[in-house]
Amino acid sequence: MVMGWVMAVTDRVELGLELGDFAVWFGSIGLVLVFALGSMLWAYKGQGSRSILFGESVELPDDNDHRIPKAIAAFNQGRELFAKGDYRAASDRFAAALQLAPNWPEAYHNWGLALANLLDDNEAAPRLVKAGDLYLNSGNLQGSALLRRHLSAMVDRKKQRQAAKAG
Fold it and tell me: I need a surface site. Which of 26, 61, 93, 127 has the fewest CB within 10 A?
């Protein structure tokens, strides 16, 4: 297949493009594409588009007898990844924990914090609101107060970013 393509290209030498020139042109375009794709992947993985607003995730609550051990393991893996700064992978682990234990406020809370650190506030906000609802329904006023502080920090960051754009 490659040989047929090269032969088709060499048939076009009549257009003034020598095979050596074509190789240089093709290599240059290839390098640009590799650089562009690498940059996009780097940003997607969270290393190029993040703002560390939250340095720590929410701890595992003491009363976990009713939770599935695999959900607890996913939650703990998410916390470890969060602590290492791998917010994209941490986000995935908190989501996995919630698949197994869907009404877990701390998991929603941490999922929202990880997304906020990735500058994905539009995705973080609904997770944090869900965590707030679950905290209030379970009577966890301490968790609810912490969540309010986190939401306030996100609002402050948004105002600062808007002011920077305007100024």
Answer: 26
CA 143-53-74 angle, to 5 degrees, is: 60
Q: How far is the C-alpha of 135 from the C-alpha of 131, rounded, in Å?
A: 6
Residue 67 makes CB contacts below 8 A (sequence gap 6+) with 101, 104
pLDDT in tens, 20-40: 777 776 677 767 666 666 555
The pair of three-digit structure tokens given for residue 91, joined into one six-digit string: 């986000």
Angstrom CA distances, 102 to 26, 66, 161, stand at 51, 12, 33
Cβ proximity of 53 and 157 under 8 Å: yes
| 133: exposed, middle or buried (Cβ count in 10 Å: 0-12, 13-18, 19+) | middle
Structure-block tokens of residue 108: 């929603």
Question: What are the CA-CA distances from residue 4 to residues 10, 14, 18, 87 (Å)?
Answer: 10, 17, 17, 46
Residue 54 exposed, middle or buried by CB count within 10 Å (0-12, 13-18, 19+):
buried
pTM for the complete prediction? 0.70
Strands (E), the chain: none
